[in-house]
User: What shape does this take?
Amino acid sequence: MRTENATSLNQIDDQFLDAETLEKAFDIAPPQDKGRMYSIFYEVALESLKENGKIKNYEATVQYSDDDISGIDYWLITTNDKHVPISITGTRFCAQQRRRHHPEIPTIAIRKKSVKETKTINSLKKETIAGIEFYLRSNHKPRS
Assistant: This one.
């Protein structure tokens, strides 16, 4: 899901910071790299959460790192400096599979029930906040 050196949206041309469609992410991502395309699209939502003060920051995991292998795609840093893991995937079906293997990690599907449609940035933001709240309410101890 990650490129060798995970790039953040901050390193991508500013013209795409307001991208709200998967098609724009497709223009940035390497050809046929759906995982990177989903990451870019999701990072638009993360940047918005960061700009609105809902999270302090986020870090993408590096492909094949221990975190990546354990199902973590991003570490979100809350405003209280808690590190919350998030997993993203393309479809609801894949999200359900990941949740079975890693129920402690909030998992977000980028596409809607209809595989042909993507969720809106606002929908992804709401799911991310819900995932953070779920993780912090659970018995898991976030990294600090």
Observations:
- The mean pLDDT is 80.
- Residues 34-51 form the longest helix (18 residues).
- The chain is about 40% helix and 10% strand.
